[in-house]
Amino acid sequence: MSDVFLFLGAFLASAVEMVEALTIVLAVGVTRGWRSPLIGVAAATVALVSIIAALGPALQHLPIDVLRLVVGALLLCFGLQWLRKAILRSSGYKPLHDEEEAFRAERAEAAAAGREERLGMDWYGFTISFKGVLLEGLEVAFIVITFGSTQGRLGLAAAAAGAALVLVAVVGVLVHAPLARVPENTIKFAVGLLLTTFGTFWAAEGAGVSWPGDELALLGLLGFLAALALLLVRLLRRERLVLQTGEA
Amino acid sequence: MRVLRSFALFWWDFIVGDDWRVAAGIACALALTAVLTHQGLSAWWLLPLAVAVLLGRSLQRAARQSA
């Protein structure tokens, strides 16, 4: 069961980050030509694969309790950030992520930027897509490494990220536009829940806890956190409504 | 020095994010869980409870700030 959650978590997190990276690369490519942005994508991909290949197996040499405590705690903090943002977006305190708006803003910046040739490349096109893919991809790398090493299933987590990369790349090439129809905000909510669930489970195990029902406790935790998150969304929406009514 | 500072700030923002109190609370809850467990007590409930309280308080602060 944890393998299914692990695959799902790594796949969804990777897909949603890659949709954002695709928007950046598309905006730069469409505006300034494809060669330099694509070299940037390739360079960032090599960097990310190297990070996963170096850190993933190295972490697996640590004692399992230490690994689960440290990685679980990091994953829990990281997951709570995703969940917190998702709840603030769902309750209207933070604007929803809009891929078409991001695409328009990136295109405007790419059109306005000057042209500087370095190493035979359009340096703006290269650096923007390199940074975009690297920064979005670092979150993917973090999730793949933490999920994979703690569960001893680095290959599965990397395969999930790889499947998401292929899917987003193929759809991106076919559609040739930002993937605005992907329900990013909902996916981020789900990923936040999964990261927080796994982080809580592993960090507590690392601190010496024996979960009732062993791995089945993951389901209970997921249900508890989902109910909590939905309750918090309702409470915050109500509070916002009260504030707006008071102002009117 | 500036590069080191930027590197540290990047990882701080990456892991801890907007509300450091959440990360500090998680660290305290984990330490308490370890203490209780090593004394032979069942403490599986502590971390989920801490997550619920810390997340709720953090969202409350964020909502107040943006209101």
Key traits:
heterodimer; A: 248 residues; mainly alpha; two-stranded antiparallel ribbon; 8 helices; 2 strands; 2% strand; B: 67 residues; 81% helix; flat
Mean pLDDT of chain B: 91
β-sheet strand percentage of chain A: under 5%
The helix content of chain B is over 70%
Distance between the termini of chain B: 38 Å
What is the overall silhouette of chain A? flat
Residue ranges of chain B: pLDDT <50 for 5 or more in a row? Answer: none
Q: What does the model show?
A:
- The complex is a heterodimer of chains A (248) and B (67).
- By secondary structure, chain A is mainly α.
- Chain A has one domain.
- Chain A contains eight helices and two strands.
- A two-stranded antiparallel ribbon of chain A has the order 1-2.
- In chain A, a hairpin with a 2-residue loop joins strand 1 (117-118) and strand 2 (121-122).
- Chain A is flat.
- With 67 residues, chain B is mostly helical.
- Chain B is built from three helices and no strands.
- Chain B has helices at residues 2-15, 20-38, 46-66.
- The longest helix of chain B is centred in the last third of the chain and has 21 residues, at 46-66.
- Chains A and B meet through helix 3, helix 5, helix 7 and helix 8 of A and helix 2 and helix 3 of B.
Tell me briefly what this model is:
The complex is a heterodimer of chains A (248) and B (67). Chain A has 248 residues and is mainly α.
What's the SSE blueprint?
The complex is a heterodimer of chains A (248) and B (67).
Chain A: H1 2-32, H2 35-59, H3 64-90, H4 99-112, E1 117-118, E2 121-122, H5 123-151, H6 154-175, H7 184-206, H8 217-247
Chain B: H1 2-15, H2 20-38, H3 46-66
Helix pairs in contact in B: 2-3
